[in-house]
Structure formats: structure tokens, C-alpha cells
Amino acid sequence: MKKMLLFIVLIAPCLFAQQNTLQDYVEQGLESNLVIKQKQHSLKKSMWALKEARGMFFPNVSFQARYSVAQGGREIDFPVGDLLNPVYNSLNQLTGEQRFSNIPNEAIPFLRPTEQETKFRVTQSIVNPQIHFNRKINEEAYQITEQELEQYKRELEADIKKAYFDYLKTLNVLSLLEETEKLVEENLRVSQKLYDNDMITEDAVWRAKTEVSELTGRMAEAEKNHHLARSYFNFLLNRELSMPIEIEKFEFMPGLQEASFYMQQALDQREELKIIEHQLLLNRYSVKMSKSSFYPTLSAAVEAGIQGEDYRIDENADFVMASVVLSWDLFTGGQNKARKMQAELQHQSVDLARQRLQQQIRLQVQENYDRSTEKIKRFEASQVNEKHAQKAYEITRKRYSLGTASQIELIDARNTMTNASVNRIISKYDFYISLVKLEQTTSTSIIY
């Protein structure tokens, strides 16, 4: 008993891996897909844009240094001589001495020959609604990019699953035709032997050879479809087109729930609807942002450093300046109102698109659900037809060996059996493909 338990423990992971071959391929495809990598870069870009918008709420600290040399320019005339020289002359006359000499008028240049200003500047927005709504807009833009990535992943997963089932379909059809080849070759051998013994006419031999040739052409077409299916599957996984593909057996027939269940799942899970919801929020914040442009903004700034004609640090060079800035656009030629109206119209347009998308999703779910129910019924009927065709062929083959059935009857029974088996294989994997489409439409897992 202990050995049996140990065997189960050791073999269970291998069995589990075999049962999830398709899921492993899906994960491989999602990891290697170049479009997904590109969209992941776009998502990272949106994330950094969101961080940039959040950074606007914090103070901005900058260091600024300026050293300038000037020559010429405007001058300020100061008539100090004209003002003081009459006074000085009167004093000299009163004292009888030349104690005060005349002074010229002064011309002070507007630009100093050398000047420097080195400072730290801190600015902080106090009241600015546009910063708040800008952050909200970037948050919704990030969510939209994320949902677009998830939508593409869902579509790629569905493409990989459909390609895998197409590959299994062509593989099984090719295997069936290879088995059928043995039957027609045996029929040719028996016919040739009967003809050699003068038991049948020569036309039976040529009819058997014709059947072999027809099957050869049919196998060539099946082999071509098999290679194309393998190449397309490997293409989706971004690997060499001729790489072998592991086989996973699918014998289960999952039951379907009511259509209303899948419809509700689709309305709750589909990324397209989530994208529309985020677009509505984004447009709503854009409208509010446009309205906020009618209101004033308030910010504060503090500067501290040194300034003067040269670099030195003393009480005459140090300075500190604080300011509060109020800005209010009183008239912009109707630009703010125009932006507000554009945002409101865009919001209404997206809301209409959401209603239309919901109707489309309901229709898609209903179509894929009906297709899946039809495919399972077709597959069940093909299983019954295959059993009947096999029994009919066995009876006809025995009659032919006893000489009570013609070669035409045998060939017709064999063709009917082969077509029934091919139809059963196609019906089976068409059903799985219909489930994949239903999964894609409802954004839920049905096969696993």
C-alpha cells in the first residue's frame, strides 16, 4: 500500500503536466509574444505619467545661479550738482572760505557692470483644481492601458487554443486516413488475387487502384493542412514553425450553463466594457478640469540666497523673499468654454458607445452559445453515425469475402465509414473551438 501511494505521489505531477499541455502553451505564448511586450512598455509609460501627475502635489525645489556682465544700456540722470552746488556756493560766501567745492551731476547706469544672484527657490501650489483632475485623468489612462493589455492577452489565448485544436483535428484526420490506407491497399491486394484466380473481372482491380489513388490525393491535402496548422500554432508561440507539438488528449464534454449566466459574465468581465467605463470617468474628469479653468489658482514661493556685484557672503548679500501668487483668467476669448463643451460632447459619445457595445456583447454571447450547443449535438450525432457506418462496413466486408456483395458495395461502405470517422473528428474539435470562442466572448474559463 505504501509503495502504491509513493508511486501515485511521484507520477501525479507528470499526469498533471500532461493534462495541462495546452495551458502551458498558452502561458508560453503570452510570455514570448512581441505585441504583449510592446503593450507592457506602454503600460509602464502610463505608470510613469501617473507618477508625474502625482508629483505635482509636492513642492518644487530648484537651485538657480546667475552671473551677468553688462555695458551700456539706459541711464538714470540724477541732478545732484544742480541741487547742491547753489547751497555750497552760498555757504562759501557766508564763511568767506572755499570749503565746499562744486560737484557734477550723476548719471547712474540702469545695468550694473557685474551682477550675480544665487538662490534656492521653493514653489508650492496651494489651490489648483487642475492638478487634482490631471492626476485623476492619468489614473484612468493607466487603467485603460492595463485593460487593453488584458484584452489582447485574452484574444491571444483564444487564438492559441483554436490553433491547437485545429492542429489536433488535422493530426487525427491524417492518422485516420493512414489507417484507411491499409484497408484500401488490402482491398487492392485481395482484388488482385481474386482476379489472378479468375474469380472477378479486371475492372474490379482497376477500381481498387482508383480508390488507392483517390485516398493518396486526400492524404496529401490532409498532410498539407496538418503542416499549416502546426506552422500557425508555432507562429503564435513565436518559435520555429517546424517545432514538434506535444499532444494532449481531450475526451471530456463540459456541460454548458444557461445562456443568461454567460451573458452576465461577459457584461461583468469583458475588458472592452471596463475600458469604456474608465473612458467615461476620464471624460468626466476632463469636463471638471475644463470647468476648473474658470476659477483662480493660488501658489506660494520662497527664495533664499545671495546677490550683489560679486560673490561674497555677508549681511548685505543675503536675502530671503516670500511671495503668494494669485492667478485668475478673467477673459480667454471663450477658450475655456469651448474646451468644456468638447469634453461634455466626448462624454456623451462614449456613453452611447458603451450602450452599443453592451448590445453587441449580448449578441455575441448568444451566437456563440447557440453555436456551442449545436456543435455538441452534431458531435453526438457523428459518434452514432460512425458506429453505424463501422458496423455496416464489417457486414459488407464479410459478405464481399463470401461473394454475396459486390466490390462497389464494399467501396461505398468503406467510404461511408471513413467519412463518418472524419466527420466525428471534425465535429469533436469544432465543438472545442466553439467553446474557446464562448470563452473569449464571456472572458471566462470553460475548457479548464
For the structure shown, list the relevant keywords.
448 residues, alpha+beta, Outer membrane efflux proteins (OEP), 4-stranded antiparallel beta sheet, two-stranded antiparallel ribbon
How would you describe this structure to a colleague?
The protein is of the alpha+beta class and 448 residues long. It has two domains: 20-57 and 131-294 and 333-442, Outer membrane efflux proteins (OEP) (Up-down Bundle); 72-110, no CATH class. The protein contains ten helices and six strands. The chain has helices spanning 2-19, 21-32, 34-55, 80-95, 129-196, 202-236, 259-269, 271-292, 335-402, 407-442; strands at residues 60-69, 75-78, 106-109, 114-127, 297-308, 318-327. The strands form two sheets. The protein has a four-stranded antiparallel beta sheet with strand order 1-4-5-6, with no helix packed on it. The longest helix has 68 residues, at 129-196.
